[in-house]
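User: I'll paste a sequence; please echo it back and then give the predicted structure.

Assistant: Echoing your sequence first, then the prediction.
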Amino acid sequence: MTLPIAFSRWLLALCVGLACISAAQAQGNLEIDTPTISALRQSMQQRHVQLAPLYASGAVGLATDGSVALRDAGAVPLAQRAQANSLIAAENADRAALYREIARANGHPEWEADVRRTFAQRWIERAQPGWWVQQGGNWARK
Protein backbone atom coordinates (compact mmCIF):
# COMPACT_ATOMS: atom_id res chain seq x y z
CA MET A 1 0.00 0.00 0.00
CA THR A 2 2.93 2.37 0.52
CA LEU A 3 4.08 1.93 -3.06
CA PRO A 4 0.99 3.57 -4.58
CA ILE A 5 1.21 6.45 -2.07
CA ALA A 6 4.92 6.89 -2.80
CA PHE A 7 4.24 6.74 -6.53
CA SER A 8 1.43 9.28 -6.19
CA ARG A 9 3.73 11.64 -4.34
CA TRP A 10 6.46 11.16 -6.92
CA LEU A 11 4.02 11.77 -9.76
CA LEU A 12 2.72 14.91 -8.08
CA ALA A 13 6.27 16.17 -7.54
CA LEU A 14 7.10 15.45 -11.18
CA CYS A 15 4.03 17.33 -12.43
CA VAL A 16 4.77 20.32 -10.20
CA GLY A 17 8.39 20.28 -11.35
CA LEU A 18 7.42 20.19 -15.01
CA ALA A 19 4.95 23.03 -14.51
CA CYS A 20 7.68 25.10 -12.86
CA ILE A 21 10.09 24.36 -15.71
CA SER A 22 7.48 25.42 -18.28
CA ALA A 23 6.77 28.63 -16.40
CA ALA A 24 10.47 29.37 -16.02
CA GLN A 25 11.06 28.81 -19.71
CA ALA A 26 8.18 31.15 -20.60
CA GLN A 27 9.50 33.79 -18.22
CA GLY A 28 13.05 33.36 -19.46
CA ASN A 29 12.09 34.47 -22.95
CA LEU A 30 9.90 37.47 -22.19
CA GLU A 31 12.28 39.80 -24.00
CA ILE A 32 11.92 37.95 -27.30
CA ASP A 33 11.41 40.32 -30.22
CA THR A 34 9.58 39.98 -33.49
CA PRO A 35 8.21 42.68 -35.79
CA THR A 36 4.73 42.15 -34.30
CA ILE A 37 5.98 42.34 -30.71
CA SER A 38 8.03 45.43 -31.53
CA ALA A 39 4.99 47.15 -33.07
CA LEU A 40 2.85 46.30 -30.03
CA ARG A 41 5.47 47.65 -27.63
CA GLN A 42 5.82 50.84 -29.65
CA SER A 43 2.04 51.34 -29.70
CA MET A 44 1.87 50.82 -25.94
CA GLN A 45 4.79 53.19 -25.35
CA GLN A 46 3.13 55.94 -27.40
CA ARG A 47 -0.17 55.46 -25.56
CA HIS A 48 1.54 55.59 -22.17
CA VAL A 49 2.00 59.35 -22.55
CA GLN A 50 -1.79 59.69 -22.48
CA LEU A 51 -2.35 57.04 -19.80
CA ALA A 52 0.27 58.37 -17.34
CA PRO A 53 -1.93 61.25 -16.07
CA LEU A 54 -4.80 58.78 -15.58
CA TYR A 55 -2.54 56.52 -13.52
CA ALA A 56 -1.32 59.51 -11.50
CA SER A 57 -4.86 60.75 -10.79
CA GLY A 58 -5.98 57.30 -9.64
CA ALA A 59 -8.60 57.05 -12.36
CA VAL A 60 -6.82 54.08 -13.93
CA GLY A 61 -5.06 51.25 -12.15
CA LEU A 62 -3.07 48.12 -12.93
CA ALA A 63 -5.17 44.97 -12.50
CA THR A 64 -3.92 41.60 -11.32
CA ASP A 65 -4.88 40.01 -14.64
CA GLY A 66 -2.32 42.05 -16.60
CA SER A 67 -4.79 44.63 -17.86
CA VAL A 68 -5.50 48.24 -16.98
CA ALA A 69 -8.85 49.19 -15.50
CA LEU A 70 -10.90 52.30 -14.98
CA ARG A 71 -10.70 52.35 -11.20
CA ASP A 72 -12.38 55.69 -10.46
CA ALA A 73 -14.50 57.12 -13.26
CA GLY A 74 -15.20 60.18 -11.09
CA ALA A 75 -11.54 61.18 -11.40
CA VAL A 76 -12.05 61.70 -15.14
CA PRO A 77 -14.10 64.70 -16.28
CA LEU A 78 -17.28 63.56 -18.02
CA ALA A 79 -16.18 65.12 -21.32
CA GLN A 80 -12.99 63.00 -21.28
CA ARG A 81 -14.42 59.64 -20.18
CA ALA A 82 -15.04 58.33 -23.69
CA GLN A 83 -11.43 59.07 -24.59
CA ALA A 84 -10.21 57.42 -21.37
CA ASN A 85 -12.31 54.32 -22.08
CA SER A 86 -10.91 54.18 -25.63
CA LEU A 87 -7.34 54.42 -24.33
CA ILE A 88 -8.01 51.64 -21.81
CA ALA A 89 -9.60 49.40 -24.45
CA ALA A 90 -6.71 49.95 -26.88
CA GLU A 91 -4.15 49.31 -24.15
CA ASN A 92 -5.84 46.10 -23.04
CA ALA A 93 -6.12 44.89 -26.65
CA ASP A 94 -2.39 45.50 -27.17
CA ARG A 95 -1.50 43.84 -23.87
CA ALA A 96 -3.53 40.73 -24.74
CA ALA A 97 -1.91 40.61 -28.18
CA LEU A 98 1.55 41.08 -26.61
CA TYR A 99 1.07 38.16 -24.22
CA ARG A 100 -0.19 35.96 -27.04
CA GLU A 101 2.64 36.93 -29.41
CA ILE A 102 5.37 36.39 -26.83
CA ALA A 103 4.04 32.89 -26.16
CA ARG A 104 3.81 32.18 -29.91
CA ALA A 105 7.29 33.58 -30.59
CA ASN A 106 8.63 31.16 -27.99
CA GLY A 107 6.96 28.33 -29.90
CA HIS A 108 4.57 27.65 -27.02
CA PRO A 109 1.17 29.32 -27.44
CA GLU A 110 0.04 27.36 -24.38
CA TRP A 111 2.29 29.64 -22.28
CA GLU A 112 0.04 32.65 -22.89
CA ALA A 113 -1.55 32.49 -19.42
CA ASP A 114 1.90 32.17 -17.79
CA VAL A 115 3.20 35.14 -19.78
CA ARG A 116 0.12 37.18 -18.78
CA ARG A 117 0.61 36.35 -15.06
CA THR A 118 4.30 37.21 -15.20
CA PHE A 119 3.67 40.52 -16.93
CA ALA A 120 0.87 41.34 -14.49
CA GLN A 121 3.33 40.91 -11.63
CA ARG A 122 5.97 42.98 -13.43
CA TRP A 123 3.56 45.84 -14.23
CA ILE A 124 2.46 46.00 -10.58
CA GLU A 125 6.02 45.75 -9.21
CA ARG A 126 7.21 48.52 -11.53
CA ALA A 127 4.26 50.84 -10.95
CA GLN A 128 5.24 54.30 -9.82
CA PRO A 129 4.55 55.39 -6.25
CA GLY A 130 1.02 56.78 -6.03
CA TRP A 131 -0.39 54.59 -8.79
CA TRP A 132 -3.22 52.21 -7.94
CA VAL A 133 -2.69 48.47 -8.25
CA GLN A 134 -4.79 45.46 -7.45
CA GLN A 135 -3.54 43.28 -4.63
CA GLY A 136 -5.60 40.26 -3.70
CA GLY A 137 -8.54 41.64 -5.67
CA ASN A 138 -8.54 44.94 -3.76
CA TRP A 139 -7.22 48.28 -4.98
CA ALA A 140 -4.29 49.80 -3.10
CA ARG A 141 -2.17 52.86 -3.73
CA LYS A 142 1.46 51.91 -4.28
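The longest helix spans residues 2-28. The chain has a mean pLDDT of 85.
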